[in-house]
Amino acid sequence: MIPTYTIGVDFGTNSARAIVVSCEDGRTVGTSVAEYHSGDHGVLTHPKDPHLARQNPADYIGSLGQSISRALADASATEGFDRTKVVGIGVDTTGSTPIPIDARARPLAVDPRWEGHLAAHAWLWKDHTAAEEAAAITAMAREHAPHLLEPIGGTYSSEWWWAKIWKCLKVAPEVFDAAASWVELADFIPAVLAGVDDPTKIVRCVCAAGHKAMYLGRDQGSGIRDQGLPSKAFLARLDPKLADLRDRLYDVALPPGTPAGRLSREWANALGLPEGILIAMGGFDAHYGAVGSGIEVGTLVKIIGTSTCDCALAPAGVTTIPGICGIVDGSILPGFRGVEAGQSAVGDILKWWVEGVCQGGEALHDELSRQAAALRPGESGLMALDWNNGNRTILVDPKLTGLMLGQTLHTSRAEVYRALVEATAFGARAIIERLREYGVPIDRVVCCGGIAEKNDLFMQIYADVIGQPMLIAGSPQAPALGAAISAAVTAGVFPTWTEAQRRMTSLNDKRFEPEPLAHAVYDDLYAIYRQLHDEFGGVTNGDLGAVMKQLLSIRSRVMV
After folding, report:
1. Are 267 and 332 in the same domain?
2. Quick one: 121 and 175 in the same domain?
3. 558 and 451: one domain?
4. CA spacing 20 to 30 A to 506: which of 22, 144, 348, 405?
5. What pTM was computed for the model?
6. Is the pLDDT of residue 221 over 50?
7. Which residues of 11-27 are buried (b: 16+ CB within 10 A; e: fewer)?
8. Do 274 and 301 fall into the same domain?
């Protein structure tokens, strides 16, 4: 193989990370992180609305150039590397993170007239202000267009495209009216690199369109073929202005492997790269993280960070799974149905406890983790629900909140820490059980992200709760690697995705095996979790009077 390199850029919640990768073996030869500077670690919030989370698009543009430039400078120290050998760039982002743009495809918020207006900024994935709009979309679709809900598990989410845009129309109609169009962050960054200055020329990815915007491709829906975005008739039932907006959006969304454009002269000069190299189709961080973790049929990839996103490939006969974020043709790999699920807060819950409540930092994270590791499953007598930021899967309800049962006058900070980790593991098990129930095979679980890399206690608890080995992706930057793999396939370096993944992905030598005795205790605790999950989640209406005593009984048993 002629030495070639690709670049992957991962736009996370707080920063952008760029890596320069050798196509020969997936080795990272250069890396850099550029932090977002606006708001609280890059997130714009409002003191009166805890559900609001926006981002300044100027941070995206600035971090794009900074991260790639620094990664290339880092790669220059590698023998044999040359910028002329870079053949493509891939991008992954959070989502759904829609951005209102003007007639020249520029974010409204970069215009001084709009920079002080929160609604004119990017509506970050974890913005939950559109809960009422999401519920209304779900109700309207159930009555008039049920085929729209089949691929997305039956419920539309407040985290998604149409709910956020409709919310903007309601609370900031001046912003909505000023926007020539809207664009997902996953489509915006490739368009920036390509120098696109016309919203109609932005290439849209099926990853975002299918999972978040109710886009129906060729083989999805109840006999509905090639519909694209929801019809104007349906959108008009929500608001006529949404129907009008549809004409200013897009008709076709495309899978990875299709070029999103070519590097513009301006960006080529700024980065010192060849003009015209291919820009891969944008995609969500979790989906490209799955690619970078070596996803195949039978593999569940868990991208574990501030939240968690789970990705799998579904057999052709699986068309809908209640409570799942979507089943979309080609959203992860062309030729396969991509399945997405996830939890709205995982790392954020631990951060809330350690940094927000306990007023600690990284040292306290480490201390509580060590103390919690000394505890046995069930020893604390605690049980938590992991809904501090709502429930994404399988209940799809942003208005659910966290819960902690079993506290006594002797409950310690470390016991709460462990109970919170366990709660997220129980939530993860609920997702896996739902996927298997509806025919998605899960033979192995591969984890990636900062927590998977650094927190052994976390991973061991997950193995014990789920009852399956937890494998770790070989790359600590799996989403960026997946984007770089997409760039390699798009540029023709590899003839197939299978070959690209074989050459460029790997597994870490570290793995976490379930311990039989711990798994048995967690089976009993999980039964209690599911009872609480279903009762507080509105699934059942039973008696919780015995729960506290059941927790005490388990505690007494494990302490013998």
Report:
1. no
2. yes
3. yes
4. 348
5. 0.91
6. no
7. bbbbbbbbbbbbbeebe
8. no
Residues 135 and 227 in one domain: yes
pLDDT tens column, 415-456:
999 999 999 999 999 999 999 999 999 999 999 988 998 899
Let me know whether 360 and 442 are in one domain. yes
Is 489 inside a domain boundary? no
- Residue 345 to residue 347: CA distance in whole angstroms: 6
Domain finish residue from 283, 317, 338: 283
- pLDDT tens column, 6-44: 999 999 999 999 999 999 999 999 999 999 999 999 999
Whichever domain contains 413, its CATH number is 3.30.420.40
Report how many helices (DSSP H) and strands (DSSP E) the chain contains, helices first: 19, 21
In this predicted structure, what is the pLDDT of residue 398? 84
Any domain includes 500: no
pLDDT tens for residues 373-425? Answer: 999 999 999 999 999 999 989 998 888 999 999 999 999 999 999 999 999 99
The two structure tokens encoding residue 537: 């989640």
Alpha helix (H) ranges present in 90-130?
A: none
33/145 Cα distance (integer angstroms): 44
Cis before 96 (ω within 30): yes
Burial class (CB in 10 A: 0-12, 13-18, 19+), 172: middle
Range of the domain at 82: 5-283
Identity of the residue numbered 475: S
Q: How far apart are CA 145 and CA 232, in angstroms?
A: 12
pLDDT tens-digit series, residues 48-64: 999 999 999 999 999 99
The two beta strands, 86-93 and 283-284, are parallel
